[in-house]
Specification:
alpha+beta, two-stranded antiparallel sheet, 9 helices, about 70% helix
């Protein structure tokens, strides 16, 4: 049961990330063809305006599909709007983390202005610093990374401890998702932000986008395989 709950929490953190992109698209007047809760085949849907809202069969995460024919058409959207659209997901995860920490602090220390305002900000800042240090450790050979297998396995122990540990686990998930997606590597949000920013310097740099995206996808696949191998090895041991 714990494994199922931790998997659903991962899906919820991803869904909040995608909902952040949806809100940013609405704000920036970027047309959206589809917003899906979950992935895979459609279970149920409705249409509002120009957007189809799906409930998909696999309740893990979701996605936002802009109403464009291809990537070139999306690049016709003004750079500033695309930047805010890319920032929407990580910002939503930071907001989710803030909410988790505010509730956690109140449960642990009692309701106070400090517990629901400045303290979560300091906690988030500290966690981001620690995660950036851990990422740096990967390149120096002193770090360790977990994939979905390791996260679900760790979540099984967390969620068994009740609401307090669920909040801690969801907070860690959400911050991790925000930090990971802000890495300056396409196709992650941070990579898109980097490329859009370079576009403002010289639009000819746009031609690098597709090539760097392919390289980034290959690197991410390699990282996933490496992380999954490490997760399975640790579980077997």
């Amino acid at each position: 049961m714990g494994y199922l709950v931790s998997a659903l929490l991962i899906g919820f953190a991803i869904l909040i990330h995608e909902f952040g992109h949806l809100l940013a698209a609405w704000w920036m007047k970027i047309p959206v063809a589809r917003f899906s809760v979950g992935i895979g085949p459609k279970l149920w849907s409705f249409r509002r305006g120009e957007t189809d809202y799906w409930l998909s069969w696999i309740p893990l995460g979701g996605y936002v599909l802009p109403a464009v024919e291809d990537h070139d058409e999306f690049l016709k959207v003004p750079v500033g709007r695309r930047l805010i659209f890319a920032f929407g997901g990580p910002v939503a995860n930071i907001v989710l983390s803030f909410c988790c920490l505010a509730v956690y602090n109140c449960l642990q220390e009692g309701l106070s202005f400090w517990a629901v305002s400045a303290q979560p900000v300091l906690q988030i800042t500290s966690m981001i610093g620690a995660m950036l240090g851990a990422i740096g450790g990967l390149f120096s050979g002193g770090g360790e990374v977990s994939g979905i297998v390791g996260i679900v396995a760790a979540g099984d122990h967390f969620v068994a401890g009740g609401l307090i540990n669920v909040l801690r686990f969801l907070n860690a998930l959400s911050i991790s998702l925000a930090v990971f997606n802000m890495l300056p590597m396409p196709p992650l949000d941070g990579g898109k932000i980097l490329m859009y920013s370079l576009e403002k310097v010289d639009r000819r740099l746009l031609r690098l986008h597709e090539h760097l995206t392919v390289v980034g996808i290959l690197l991410l696949l390699g990282l996933m395989i490496y992380a999954t191998y490490g997760d399975v090895s640790r579980l077997l041991n």
